[in-house]
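Re: your question about Molecular chaperone Hsp33

S., sorry for the slow reply, the queue was backed up all week. Below is exactly what I fed in.
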Amino acid sequence: MQNAIVKALINEEQIRLYFIDNTQLLRDIYALNQELPKPLKLLLGKTVSAMSILSGTLKGNQRMSIQVTLSNPHHKIFAEAEANGNVRGYLNEELLRTSNIEEKSMQDLIGPSGMIRVIKGSEMNQFTSITDMPNQHITDDIANYFVQSDQTPTYLYSDIQLDNGASLLSSHALYAQLLPGAPPHLLSEVKMIVKANPDIFSKLNAEKASDSEEALTQLFGDAKIIGHSSSQFFCGCSKEMFYGMLYSLSEEEIKRSIERKEDIEAFCHICGKTYTFKQKEMQQLF
Ligand SMILES: [Zn+2]
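Result:
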């Protein structure tokens, strides 16, 4: 099932395990970032893929946003997920402009002093945590955030397959978290089973929930599917949001555009939408 998070309990209901085929979500993100060199594609893809599966852990009107700052502090990756499964993500301009990185590994780009900042919660009740990136690895270090900030042992895995031309073939993610009281070694066992089964997602992907349950049971001993939720790319930008940007232009600039009878165009670098502000709309700003 594409863009559907399958939620299960395994190991006698001691571990929460979710997985997703989010190929379509990543395809939508990559369509807006076509010229990205492979290492950046993977950095963005893995961050977004992790957030898409984590959207399944959010409730009500909760949202979670992440900012990954690479060792070069000007290089940042942003992604955001909402409880309804809407996910967006992008790289900042400085990172997009970096040259000669085709041959670099993700580990090289993250470097020894990467940082992760997570803001999680609902509008009235937000928590910010900053953790370092000891593994120089997107999903391992997001999992490390859960250990550091929530004291909850967590495993996150993202598998992105690109062809030789760096076009997307498939994307999947898996999340496992120990439930209170469960012995920590159970999570290491899940990790080992995932590592030992490189084709795990082709085994798990099934049209019917009962087939997924059977596949999970074969891999992990026992499993119970407890639900599904969707996750999809959605920007959520609006013209109103870009009025704020217009205000940040100087009055002089706006007046000049009005004199020249030029419209102002605002471009959303997350989803690629362009908003045009007509003369009349700009005059209303004064
Ligand atoms: Zn947008």
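Residues 39 and 104 are 7 Å apart (CA to CA). The first helix runs from residue 23 to 31.

Happy to talk it through on Thursday.
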